[in-house]
Amino acid sequence: MTLPYAISLPADSGRRNRTGSWRVERPVYVDRIPPCTSSCPAGEEVQTWLYFAEEGDYEKAWRTLTEVNPFPAIMGRICYHPCETACNRASLDSAVGINAVERFLGDYALEHHLEFKLPEVIHDAPVLIVGGGPSGLSAAYQLRRRGFRVVLCERESEVGGMLQYGIPAYRLPRDIVHGEIERLLADGIEVQLNTQVEDLAALMASQKYAACYIAIGEGIGKKIDIPMEDGTHLTDALAILRKASHGETIHIGKRVAVYGGGNTAMDAARTARRLGAHETVIVYRRTAHEMPAHPEELEGALEEGVEVQWLSTISYVSPHELTIEQMELDDEGKAKPTGKFTKLDADTVILAVGQDSDTSFLSTISSIRVEDGEIGVDSSGMTGAEGIFAGGDVVPGTKTATDAIGMGRTAAAAIAAYLGHPDTPGSLREPATYERLNTWYFSDAPRSVRPTLELARRATTFDEVVLPLDVETALFEARRCMSCGNCFQCDNCYGMCPDNAIIKDPSTGHGYRVDLEYCKGCGICAAECPCGAIDMIPEPF
Amino acid sequence: MTERIRFYQVGSFAIGNRLLDRERVTVQSQMERTNALDSGHRACQGCGEALAARYVLDAAMRATGNDIVVVNATGCLEVFSSPFPESSWKVPWLHSLFGNAPAVATGVAAALRMQGNVSTRVVAQAGDGGTVDIGFGTLSGMFERNDDVLFVCYDNEAYMNTGVQRSGATPPAARTATTEAIGSEPGNAFGQGKDLPKIAVAHGIPYVATATVADLHDLEAKVTKAMEIRGARYLHVLVPCPLGWGTEAHDTIHVARLACETGLFPVYEAEKGVVTDRTPIRHIRPVEEYLRMQKRYQHLFRGAGRKDIVERIQQIADAQIRQYDLLPEEVIP
Fold first, then answer.
1. Of A317, A255, A309, which is closest to residue A283 (Cα–Cα)?
2. Which residues in chain B (218-257) have CB-CB distances under 8 A to chain A?
3. % of chain B residues with pLDDT over 70
4. Count of domains for chain A
5. What is the pLDDT of residues A450-489, one digit of tens each?
6. Which residues on chain B are in Cβ contact (under 8 Å) with A524?
7. CB A490 to CB B25 under 8 A?
8. Cβ–Cβ of B332/A446 closer than 8 Å?
9. Angle at CA B284, nearest 5°, toward B282 and B288?
10. Which domains, and CATH codes, for chain B?
11. Of B122, B263, B87, B175, whose CA–CA distance to A9 is shortest?
């Protein structure tokens, strides 16, 4: 080889030495499931849509989000955001305000009139959906996304279920509900309003439905027997909420007692305050610890001046006074009567002691198991009857809109699979734990920004004060995501390899690949990866 | 000190960020970086020096429009990068003796000047042995004459490739092959050795800076600044050595970071004899955390341990934190 004058060694001669042979461990890029995603009852890939929001590409973020959940503006207001409870950033400073960003994206899409891009109907045999609440709508949307024809029967004059008739407008403005539902229905879902299904077996046979999803919810307030005098004003929480959400005139007393401890009780109590009750007292037989209502709802009610009488049951109702029996908890946490009685001034009693459903239309299908108003299903959402699925509040489990949307989606996937068109299976992913992160690389948010953020976060979770994130804050908040368990291309591995053995390669899906000819297996890349997206695995010998 | 980019996801601390403008990302995050030290070099797994050499020279290449000559003293860096007939250097590179790299660099700079070449710049590099011990005389001369050379010392605190012997940069209590962990004062003696950055500052040369492999943004900013200045410049980079320090190969960055966070390695810069800026500690840590992860200090923790010696090292750190004003700052948005 001829080299220029005074050059003794050519520049690339060192590459002959393949240092990859020294290696006993090799780095491997991994995709782990972040806690936000694994905790989302609706199944949202939270981190994935935050990734696009971080870039300011709100449309792409919204499109990614709505592959799973068609209602970000609604859920960005009413979801109890278990994702934020699970967020790893809470261990560093405070959780990412995922719910607020979701709301921002939902509002952004409504404002910019973004429409879904759904495929043509390719499977002609229609799927029947009974009930147009969040679960039924979610299932309809997911079936449409998979190319199925959908017919949705709704017994009310409007679809939406509890979004429409239950959740108070101070938490969920109705124009938002209408906006997101109209967009969903614009895309070839046949809706039959004011249609009560009387006999499901007969209907399915006559209309040749290929499958069915039952999502009738629990729209009937449970009744309990309380001895009472004539002239007492006793009403049902669902009825109050329904009238209030439609702006109907409601006569309510000055002193209102709400009986029950669930979210509906909280909504009813807070609605009663808004309807002009001077005093609102929640009467609950156990303590805050056992209360089924979400802590945020209770807190919101207390902040608005609602009072709670713990360990109390109503034993007698007079027109202006209740007789309350004191309870105590036994070792198992069950409430036991004590025989001690007190009086409580109240001129109205609102019952919120649970909800029920009317499943009489299933009576001709004996293989469907119904117990205490709830329909039994397997893990895919199928009832005892072939091709008939159920989900939402009418099946046992956590009864939130988020869960309902998630069940609608899993049922839609199960129906598609049942009809011979299963989804491509996703890979099982290990959890992305906090311990795997190298948190050195995540800057602390400056103090001057934090208060604004907290204010914005509060505003999205508490009623009345409507203070959405502005564009800048949404971007900031999205960028607080630590991308737990998944590469977000910070270049640490690329920059910190002493052997230049990490190669940028967008075609790999991770953005990088390891040059095994030269990687010595030192593990700096894995140790310094902020998000724990690199594993060191033993070299196969 | 580099401008801090406030980015709450991976802020100013990661190598790159897909959301940053290209002008604001590091040289190392770019596919076009020189890779002045190429793959195939024979440095140990997790070598801090190999990493630092690439960081420094790639940054110098960008700062000069790819127009540098590198003079390299004998030492680890030279041995692992150029075993005949191989070379891992992708820059014009000249190997000197152990002790005369500063003088050779002076000569290269003089030759370029004689040729009327004002664009090509000279970078000389050596380990701590070649800098603080063997090359000290010629380095001091280079400083005194204010020759137009950036001299970079990659400080791994001992003579590593010859078998970990003590150098003038070995810290107190550290065990080396020549300062064994025996007797009442195990390891290297307290009160000896040389603080070369301080000595360089005392020469009153145009620019002196310290840096580590743990903060690339800071290191690149200092190299860039140094290349904008004419005259003698000195950059002292702390480079952990997994072999000599007894650390895990994957802990190289982590241990360098702790050297700063404990105050044992102050990161600062000085111009014309005056300290002008320093990098404050982000999350202050006790020296014990730094010492415990290194086998060269293991004797301080064996059995009953030597709390007294750990305490003396802590006092050194505390004194430096005061001297260089290293306490964490309030974050300024």
1. A309
2. 242, 248-254, 257
3. 95
4. 4
5. 333 444 443 333 343 435 677 777 777 888 899 999 998 8
6. 46, 249-250, 252-253
7. no
8. yes
9. 140
10. 22-324 (3.40.50.970)
11. B87
Quote the CA–CA distance of A296 and A498 in Å, as a whole number: 50
- Range scoring the smallest mean pLDDT among A328-332, B95-99, B210-214: A328-332
Predicted pLDDT at B25: 81
Task: Check CB contact under 8 Å for B16 and A490.
Answer: yes
Provide the CB-side half-sphere exposure for B67 (13 A, CA): 11
From chain A, the residues in CB contact with B251 under 8 A are 527
Q: Are residues A399 and A467 in the same domain?
A: no
Angstrom distances, CA of residue B243 to CA of B171, B188, B247: 16, 17, 7
Do residues A228 and A325 both lie within one domain?
yes
**Cβ atoms B77, B49 nearer than 8 A:** yes
Q: Is A5 among the domain residues? A: no
Distances from the Cα of B266 to the Cα of A352, B126, B262, B325, angstroms:
66, 20, 9, 9
Residues 49-88 on B with a CB inside 8 Å of A are: 50-51, 54, 81-82, 84-88
> How many CB atoms neighbour CB A289 within 10 A?
8
Final residue in a domain of this structure, among A461, A478, A495 = A478
Distance from CA of B167 to the nearest CA of A (A): 24
The alpha-carbon gap from B7 to the nearest alpha carbon of chain A, in Å, equals 7
Whether the ipTM is more than 0.90: the answer is yes
By CA distance, what is A505's nearest residue in B? B31
A500, B32, B61 from A15: Cα distances, Å: 11, 18, 21
CB contact under 8 Å between B250 and A526, yes or no, is yes
Does B14 sit within 8 Å of A441, measured CB to CB?
Answer: yes
Give the tens place of pLDDT for each residue, A286-334. 998 889 998 888 988 888 789 999 999 999 999 889 999 999 998 888 8
pLDDT of residue A463: 41
Going A206 to A209 to A210 to A214, the CA torsion angle's sign is negative
Closest approach of B123 to chain A, Cα-based (Å): 18
Domain span at A215: 123-219+357-418
> By C-alpha distance, which of A256, A113, A184, A240 is closest to A405?
A184
Considering the domain architecture, whether residues A192 and A307 belong to the same structural domain is answered as: no
Q: Which of B4, B19, B37, B45 to mutate to test the interface with A (most CBs of A within 10 A)?
A: B45
SS (H, E, C) A159-205: CCCHHHHCCCCCCCCHHHHHHHHHHHHCCCCEEECCCCCCCHHHHHH
DSSP state for residue B89 in the 8-state scheme: B
Q: Nearest CA to B150 among B276, B243, B56, B62?
A: B56
CA A231/CA A256 separation, integer angstroms = 15
What distance in Å separates the CA atoms of residue A205 and residue A368, rounded to the nearest whole number?
Answer: 16
Beta-sheet pairing, B233-238 with B207-212: parallel
Phi, psi of B207 (to 5 degrees): -150, 130
Q: How far is B183 from chain A (nearest CA, A)?
A: 35
Place of tokens 């630092």: B52
Burial pattern A117-152, b for ≥16 Cβ within 10 A else e, equals ebeeeebeebbbbbbbbbbbbbbbbbbbbbebbbbb
In this structure, how many other beta carbons lie within 10 angstroms of the beta carbon of residue A188? 11
A101 in reach of chain B (CB within 8 A):
no
Q: Which of residues 193-212 of B touch A (CB under 8 A)?
A: none
pTM above 0.95, yes or no: no
Which residues 123-142 in chain B show a CB within 8 A of chain A? none
* Contact status of A21 with chain B (Cβ, < 8 Å): no
